[in-house]
Amino acid sequence: MTRAEAEALDRADPLADLRSAFDLPEGVIYLDGNSLGPPTKAALARLRQGAEEEWAKGLIRSWNDAGWIDLPHRAGAKIARLIGAQSGDVVVCDSVSVNLFKIAAALLARKPGRALCVAADEFPTDQYVLEGLSRLTGAPLLRIVAGEVPEAAVIVRSLVHYKTAAVADMAEAERAAAERGADIIWDLSHATGAVAIDVSANGARFAAGCGYKYLNGGPGAPAFLYVRRDAAERLRQPISGWMGAQAPFDFSSAYEPADGAARFAAGTPPILSLSALDASLDLFDGVDLDALEAKARALGDLFLAAGAAAGLQPVAVAGRRGGHVAFRHADAYAIVQAMIAQGVIGDFRAPDLARFGFSPLYLSYADVWRAGEILNVVMARETWREPAFARRSRVT
């Protein structure tokens, strides 16, 4: 593709106007929104309002006057639209790790003796959480091949794989799980805001996901969880904190869970970070999620072509792909660092993957064309061989 052809695609892009909603640094092409989304102008404004007005002046009154107390559910309703859930079935709270633990533990408690299952190549936190729960409960932990459905198991599975970006067939997985009496908890972290999701149509009942990737909620933004209402009413979550109680301000000594997914809340919500996430979620109002996914894939295809021209080996994905792509190279870390030095930010995933994300809300086709051009220069001139690019930082 030529630069002129990329610019023509930008002129026809129905999502192009959303780029102006982001506060992006000049001279940077940001291809890491799949790991940490950039700030929206609305999120930065909401942080200032939350800190300088609601907190500094409103003080404790802002729990009522600024609606802090309902914020986890208002933000949850906005995420519900993005994943095809009923608005009351999603609540924003805690982290992905904590939310996976709560749902998995609740499912185990309902049917003791079940096994916990996770693929051996699943995102590490998903594996670690189940390891810990296995030690705590004595439930066996099985590492399975992705797509395998053991009998009567509790399975954690990503909809979009964090390395390859392969998209699982949610409907088929849920059908197989129903046949074998198993429950799947979907990790939607690398999917929400980049691909079209419909948990209701596909029969999914349990999920968790983070707020800081494609949802642009900021570093460490709170996560969300989804539990379909009919399933929630049969479950008791293990961290029975007061924000998940039916009437927290009755200050009763006995815990009575709230209705539906609201019972999976626990402690006091982090209002400032939650406010930033809530503001960024407004960008998705009216966005066609199929168009969102189509653009993410088209941007990825453009960069894959550039990588192939540079002689890199792409990680092949058969079928549907999410919002990022990866190339395999023995010196992938150094290549990513050389790209960053040229103003193109991606990331590295051990042992040998250079990974680049394509958030469709703020990236243009011309951006990606230029990033591909820089990639070709880095590879042709072998600038990644400079010793400085091989020095590893703690965060890769």
Order of helices and strands: HEHHHEHEHEEHEHEEHHHEEHEEEH
SS strand fraction: 5-15%
Query: What is the annotated CATH architecture of the largest domain?
Result: 3-Layer(aba) Sandwich
How are the strands ordered across the major sheet?
A: 2-8-7-6-5-3-4
Straight-line distance between termini: 30 Å
CATH class of the largest domain: Alpha Beta
- The Rg value, from CA coordinates, equals 22 Å
Count of alpha/pi helices: 13
The main pleated sheet reads as: 7 strands, mixed
Average pLDDT taken over every residue:
97
- DSSP strand tally: 13
As for the number of domains, it is: 2
The CATH topology of the largest domain, please?
Aspartate Aminotransferase, domain 2
What is the 3D shape?
globular
Range of helix content: 25-40%
What would CATH call the homologous superfamily of the largest domain? Type I PLP-dependent aspartate aminotransferase-like (Major domain)
| Unreliable residue runs | none
Structural category is: alpha/beta
Task: Describe what this molecule looks like in 3D.
This protein is of the alpha/beta class and 396 residues long. The chain folds into 2 domains: 3-30 and 288-390, Aspartate Aminotransferase, domain 1; 46-284, Type I PLP-dependent aspartate aminotransferase-like (Major domain) (Aspartate Aminotransferase, domain 2, 3-Layer(aba) Sandwich), CATH 3.40.640. The chain contains 13 helices and 13 strands. The strands form 3 sheets. Strands 2-8-7-6-5-3-4 form a 7-stranded mixed beta sheet, sandwiched between helices. A 4-stranded antiparallel beta sheet has the order 9-10-13-12. A hairpin with a 3-residue loop joins strand 12 (347-349) and strand 13 (353-357). It is globular and about 70 Å long. It starts with a helix and ends in a 15-residue tail after the last helix. The mean pLDDT is 97.
